[in-house]
Specification:
- Keywords: FAD, Fatty acid metabolism, Flavoprotein, Lipid metabolism, Oxidoreductase, Peroxisome, Transit peptide.
- Its cofactor is FAD.
- GO terms for molecular function: acyl-CoA oxidase activity; FAD binding; fatty acid binding.
- It is found in: Peroxisome.
- Its main location: other.
- There is one protein chain.
- By secondary structure, the protein is an alpha+beta fold.
- Helices cover 58% and strands 9% of the residues.
- The strands form four sheets. Strands 1, 2, 3, 5, 6 and 9 form a six-stranded mixed beta sheet that branches. The protein has a three-stranded antiparallel beta sheet with strand order 4-8-7, with no helix packed on it.
- Strand 12 and strand 13 form a beta hairpin.
- The radius of gyration is 29 Å and the shape is globular.
- The protein starts with a helix and ends with a helix.
């Protein structure tokens, strides 16, 4: 009897194996000999995914709402490079050639194209960032080189200097006669700017500052524009004043100085200045990064950028700010525009990648039901889950960074202290969150395009390599998120001490009160589509999570501080703190996306944006569903409903994906059509042109 059972079981296993093998052979046969005559059909599985009213999206109307009032200046940038194909960066180019091309691109855009970004750095930052996004989409190296010239070098002169500096340097910076550098980072000090070691000692006999690099660790490192093109550098150094006591000098903290590094006529390195090339990098090789060392380089006293602190002829120091820490904070506060620009530009990079991957996925066909045509790979649920939440995030980030730019522009005009603090926190958080997300997404987009995504012509490799450093410069992302967490904890303490919360944080008062109460057992079980797509539910869920994380990390820090001290407690809770910061930024992003949906004047565009916004919100909630389940904020059946609806929204967004990516309105030479989706002759022509046949 036992032998009969075993024999019967063996036959069933053999039959099942044979069935699987035959099915696989049939699939491969259909792949090698596809049916070509019938139109492409969607997967049957997705045809029955529910009913929703079709949305007729006007790409032009949606694009007009998305790109806003600075669309014209971006079109001017695209038109200039479209008219000058010789200035478009080729696929294969050496480091030295790329550097020279980048300089030609910048000079040509400014002098021939008539676009003067520097004029908008202070007066109209939103316009400047719009130009930067367009320029960066042409070549990211060009975008960074422009940022070094105008936002960093030029911005430091304008924001940290006074009228005499603006009068002397503005025109030369504007027309690129004065190419310059921003020399802050040192070999041993990047994020810890207060630890910089370069010194600027005042000599009252000659009325000069003497710039010195005291050791190898103080060499200025990774300085853009330094290796080849820069003639000036804004050098951040410790201002040392002579005293008549045993110390000999007094350290007044980090200040900024204008230091000429090359001769204006011969371009030779000036005496006492040593310049070294940082060489070939992972990406951004159109930017000439170099290292600077100073050996007793003398500069006039007027070269001190003296907005926040000045030295008189007799060596007396004066400042409107009473302490080194306040002067340091004011100095860095004026440089926050770099982070704003990086967050904004990172969204631009994400747009390019999502456009390429989505268009490819709509056109590329692989496999399908037996004896039927192959289907678009975007009809597969797995491909939708890779790309549609990413497309939704791109829209969310777009509106969030637009708001950040508006806040930054308002801050530059009003100099309101509360607004300055708000912008500092938002720029740190959004820069860290968005650049990290974009870096991961670039790899996902490459993988989503299969082997064809690996071709250099399809841009994923260069985009990934060029963008990677966005996570590090203008503030390491991990450090920036800790700043956000620290400010959240500060606001938390003030809330319980009865103080007022600033605008960005005021949701914490109500949300913290909600957290301290138990989750509502009724709403925890609501699972209707109307409820789950209600923006109030979505935003409450995001804010609840942030408040819960804030409350719990505050308790943990207090507990560990007793045994480990402040530094040790912070380090023990570091991952918790980073999660808190990310949660707060996600809440802010969703809030701005919801506002953008409500403010959209066109009904069809508003419906499309609502669909995308719902996908963004529910996908984020589902990704962290464990947090909500652990405290019964979401009951099991509601969690399943969220997952099911997020799947369905992915499918619905897929149905309007072409219109959504077309609304970014990027030129063809920026989002080159991936090889593998055109006709064979078109693909062959494009491929052979790009590999040099």
């Amino acid at each position: 009897m036992e032998l009969q059972k075993i024999s019967s079981k063996g036959r069933r296993n053999t039959e099942e194996t044979a069935e699987l093998v035959n099915r696989r052979i049939n699939l491969l046969t259909l792949h090698l000999n596809p049916v070509q005559d019938n139109p492409v059909q969607e997967l049957e599985l997705l045809r029955c995914a529910g009913k929703m009213k079709a949305i007729n999206v006007s790409t032009e109307t949606l694009s007009e709402y998305m790109r806003g009032k600075h669309r014209d200046i971006q079109e001017e940038v695209f038109a200039y490079f479209n008219s000058r194909p010789e200035l478009q960066t080729p696929i294969e180019i050496s480091k030295d050639e790329h550097r020279e091309l980048c300089m030609k691109q910048l000079v040509g855009l400014v002098r021939e194209g008539g676009i003067r970004p520097f004029r908008y750095v202070v007066d109209d930052p939103a316009k400047y960032f719009a130009i930067a996004e367009a320029v960066g989409s042409v070549d990211m190296s060009l975008g960074i080189k422009m940022g070094v010239q105008y936002s960093l070098w030029g911005g430091s002169v304008i924001n940290l200097g006074t009228k005499k500096h603006r009068d002397k340097y503005f025109d030369g910076i504007d027309n690129v006669d004065y190419p310059g550098c921003f020399a802050m980072t040192e070999l041993h000090h990047g994020s810890n700017v207060q630890g910089l070691q370069t010194v600027a000692t005042f000599d009252p006999l000659t009325d000069e500052f003497i710039i010195d690099t005291p050791n190898d660790g103080a060499i200025k490192w990774w300085i853009g524009n330094a290796a080849v093109h820069g003639k000036f550098a804004t050098v951040f150094a410790r201002l040392m004043l002579p005293t008549h006591d045993t110390k000999g000098v007094t350290d007044m903290g980090v200040h900024a100085f204008i230091v000429p590094i090359r001769d204006m006529k011969t371009h030779k390195t000036l005496p006492g200045v040593e310049i070294h090339d940082c060489g070939h990098k992972v990406g951004l090789n159109g930017v000439d990064n170099g290292a600077l060392r100073f050996r007793s380089v003398r500069i006039p006293r007027d070269n001190l950028l003296n907005r926040f602190g000045d030295v008189s002829r007799d060596g007396r120091y004066t400042s409107s700010l009473p302490t080194i820490s306040k002067r340091f904070a004011a100095t860095l506060g004026e440089l926050v525009g770099g982070r704003v620009g990086l967050a904004y530009s990172s969204v631009g990079v994400l747009k390019i990648a999502v456009v390429i991957a989505t268009r490819y996925s709509l056109l590329r066909q692989q496999f399908g039901p037996p004896k039927e045509p192959e289907v678009s790979i975007l009809d597969y649920q797995s491909q939708q889950h890779k790309l549609m939440p990413m497309l939704a995030s791109t829209y969310a980030f777009h509106f969030a960074t637009l708001h950040l730019v508006e806040k930054y522009s308002e801050m530059k005009k009003s100099h309101d202290e509360e607004l300055i603090g708000d912008v500092h926190t938002l720029s740190a958080g959004l820069k860290a969150y968005i650049t990290s997300y974009t870096a991961k997404s670039l790899s996902t987009c490459r993988e989503a395009c299969g082997g064809h995504g690996y071709a250099a012509v399809n841009r994923f490799g260069s985009l990934r390599n060029d963008h990677d450093i966005f996570q590090t410069f203008e503030g390491d992302n991990t450090v920036l998120l800790q700043q956000v967490a620290g400010l959240l904890l500060k606001q938390y303490r003030e809330k319980f001490q009865g103080g007022t919360l600033t605008v960005t944080w005021n949701y914490l008062r109500q949300s913290m009160n909600s957290y301290l109460a138990q989750p509502n057992p009724v709403t925890a079980r609501w699972e209707s589509e109307d409820h789950l797509r209600n923006p109030n539910f979505q935003l409450d869920a995001f804010r609840y999570r942030t408040s819960r994380l804030l409350q719990s990390v505050a308790i943990r820090l207090q507990k560990h501080s007793k045994t480990l001290g402040g530094f040790g407690a912070w380090n023990r809770c570091l991952n918790h703190l980073l999660t808190l910061a990310e949660s707060h930024i996600e809440s802010f992003i969703l809030e701005k996306f919801i506002e953008a949906v409500k403010n959209c004047p066109d009904e069809n565009s508003r419906a499309a944006l609502k669909l995308v916004c719902d996908l963004y919100a529910l996908d984020r909630i589902w990704n962290d569903i464990g947090t909500y389940r652990n405290v019964d904020y979401v009951a099991p059946n509601k969690a399943k409903a969220i997952h099911k609806l997020a799947d369905y929204l992915c499918f619905q967004v897929k149905n309007i994906a072409r219109e959504l990516v077309d609304a970014f309105d990027l030129p063809d030479y920026v989002t080159r059509a991936p090889i593998g989706v055109q006709t064979p002759s078109e693909a062959y022509t494009q491929y052979t042109q790009n590999v040099g046949f």
